[in-house]
């Protein structure tokens, strides 16, 4: 039986993070049952393999005010991930990772976060403050380079950092 892998992303619009998630998903769908959980309901920009299942919040959540959406979204994320009953889950989008981790606390699933932003931005601002705290609840944090791992290890002392480079070399 193939393992179920869940990728959580802010959206599947056209953009760098979305391209990375789509590429990882397409590549991984040859080995795993792949599920993408989006935090919005925009139409996917990049082509996905037909066996990848995409979950998006219904209009009931997506078309609400920002405040109400942020109140309802954690419950929707948790219920969706629980219903998929996956083996592992990886959240993409540094600004959203702590939010997703908080939504999934105490679920019995291997939980990972992916830092795709620049190393410097990972240390600054609100995300630089909260991510090191929430990342402790994960099984690991994916970073892009050995340099990022060295720099972030000082701040993310209680986290397992895993180098997972650019996925574009994976394409056949």
Provide a descriptive summary of the structure in words.
The two termini are 25 Å apart. Strand 6 (140-143), helix 6 (146-153) and strand 7 (161-163) form a beta-alpha-beta unit. The protein has a single domain (4-170), classed as 3-Layer(aba) Sandwich (Rossmann fold), CATH 3.40.50. Helix 3 (66-84) crosses helix 4 and helix 4 packs parallel to helix 5 (125-134). With 172 residues, it is an alpha/beta fold. It has a seven-stranded parallel beta sheet, sandwiched between helices. Helices cover 38% and strands 19% of the residues. The protein is globular and about 40 Å long. The chain has helices spanning 16-28, 59-62, 66-84, 94-104, 125-134, 146-153; strands at 4-9, 33-38, 53-55, 88-92, 110-114, 140-143, 161-163.
Give the helices and strands, then pairings.
Layout (H helix, E strand, L loop, with lengths): L3 E6 L6 H13 L4 E6 L14 E3 L3 H4 L3 H19 L3 E5 L1 H11 L5 E5 L10 H10 L5 E4 L2 H8 L7 E3 L9
Parallel strand pairs: 1-2, 1-4, 2-3, 4-5, 5-6, 6-7
Helix pairs in contact: 3-4, 4-5
Quick take:
With 172 residues, this protein is α/β, with parallel strands linked by helices.
The largest sheet, given as strand count, sense and whether it forms a barrel, is: 7 strands, parallel
What's the mean pLDDT score?
A: 88
Quick one: CATH class? Alpha Beta
How many helical stretches?
A: 6
Provide the CATH topology: Rossmann fold
